[in-house]
Design goal:
Strand order of the largest sheet: 6-5-4-3-7-8
Radius of gyration: 19 Å
Largest sheet: 6 strands, antiparallel
Number of helices: 9
Distance between the termini: 5 Å
Helix content: 25-40%
């Protein structure tokens, strides 16, 4: 990592990766911008940047969209479907729709914590993304589940979230609360073992990123698909001929 400039921090780049060209020795900076407007300008990034921009696009089109953070190193988007009366998983890096089990089943990840963020608060959505919640629960050791639930309630009562809710009229407030209440019922059923038929995208390995990088992470299937839908760290370095700096 290298120090961020004031201009980079202006667009949310608290982290800047530093690389050196293997051929000419030229230093290369990779600011991890969080401002989606800036990302639409640079058109450069990994899963975090992809999810950031894709969530922005969904919101701009009028969808209720959320940014989803997986503590085992991935991010994606959820969009509420009025037709389905539920949030749908959308991974823009993988071009995957409504395939929530893909990370655990297809990629082989040992999931722990997954949270969905919107201006109306944060939701613990891990039960949507696992087929074996008791096993996942045994790995969630960072804090007691009751303490985590209390922390989420505290976060959802912060001034920023309260202002977002206060900006809704009465019918929209009732509708949004119904969405969240219905989701809690869905998550409760999933946590008690409710099952569904897996789709093809959920049983294959990861397709985005350099194949060698995916293999090191253990996220490819037995065939080791060579498809690359979006660059990751090693893919970026391979294309630019750079080595990572301090």
């Amino acid at each position: 990592m290298v120090a961020a400039t004031s201009e980079e921090r202006r667009y949310g780049a608290s982290r800047v990766e530093g690389y050196t060209c293997q051929q000419c020795g030229t230093p290369v900076r990779f600011p991890r911008y969080n401002d989606p407007g800036k990302l639409l300008e640079t058109r450069r990034g990994r899963c975090g940047e992809w999810a950031n921009c894709f969530t922005l696009v969904c919101i701009s089109l009028g969808y209720f969209a959320r940014y989803v953070l997986d503590f085992t190193d991935h991010v994606w988007t959820e969009v509420y479907s009025a037709a389905e009366n539920r949030f749908l998983h959308l991974d823009s890096c993988e071009a995957a729709l409504d395939s929530p089990s893909m990370y655990e089943v297809g990629w082989g990840k040992d999931l722990t914590y997954i949270f969905a963020f919107s201006k109306y608060g944060v939701t613990d959505v891990i039960k949507r993304y696992t087929v074996n919640f008791p096993k996942v629960l045994s790995r969630r050791t960072d804090m007691h589940e009751n303490d985590l639930a209390g922390l989420i309630r505290e976060m959802n009562s912060c001034p920023t979230v309260r202002r977002a809710w206060s900006g809704l009229d009465s019918p929209k407030t009732e509708e949004t609360r119904w969405i969240f209440d219905t989701e809690q019922l869905e998550l409760s059923l999933l946590g008690r073992g409710a099952t569904r038929q897996l789709v093809d995208a959920e049983v294959r390995g990861r397709t985005s990123g350099d194949i060698a990088w995916r293999r090191r992470r253990g996220e490819v299937d037995e065939k080791g698909s060579e498809d690359v839908a979006g660059g990751e760290e090693d893919d970026e370095r391979a294309k630019s001929g750079v080595t990572k700096g301090a």
